[in-house]
Amino acid sequence: MSVPEDWWKDFFSGLVVEMWRAVPSSEDNRAEAAWIEKQLQVSPPAKVLDVPCGDGRLSLELAGRGYQMTGVDLSADFLAAAQNSAKARGLSARFEQREMRDLPWGEEFDGAFTFGNSFGYLDDEGDRDFLVAISRALKPGARYVMDTKCAETVFPNIIATKQHYEFGGITTDMQDHYDPLRARMDTEYTFSRGEKRETKWARERIYTFREVRKMLESAGFEDVKGFGSMELEPLEIGSKRLFIVATRRM
User: Fold this and answer.
1) What structural domains and CATH numbers belong to the chain?
2) How many CB atoms lie within 10 A of CB 178?
């Protein structure tokens, strides 16, 4: 199967969105929002950018704490869910449908974050352009935090056999295919609920932390630190996730 370079344009719709929305709990949202708030070193009513924001779970958690939130995502399904949740909870947040590199703001935000393993969807140039756009949108001295995967977290935990999960009544089967020449992971997903079945492919670039750090530095960030957990444990071979904290250069 040849995975389109722009697979992300059509991937996040239908059962995919329903499944992804069922994964994090309210407790997860509160814990991650608290960590983001602490690492960004901001306080209400600071202006914070969430990109890509998905269904707005973290934007709305932070909006409830008094922050002026802007969430950006390309998925119409995710954005509809975000807007419906905001209305149901009586919260104010701005949600815009944009590709993640299309950030038109200049030095507007007091902080920004990318959570939910949403980095590495583009090619190398596209990922660099995204980080430049984030840097440009931040005020000098503002912080940016990222939750993603990297070579150090992926390879020790990679599973060669098909994986099977169930969230929100949706069954997910996935199979990873790693391309060592391009350092890319192609993943085949099959989502099903009852008689409804959707098969989709995703592609992610697997960077080392060193590569991501250099990209951030070239995009205008400094003091780039990587951790293996939200408890700020050192990043090690076999860590489950990579958490990055960086500061926009003055």
Assistant:
1) 8-148+208-248 (3.40.50.150), 154-202 (2.20.25)
2) 15
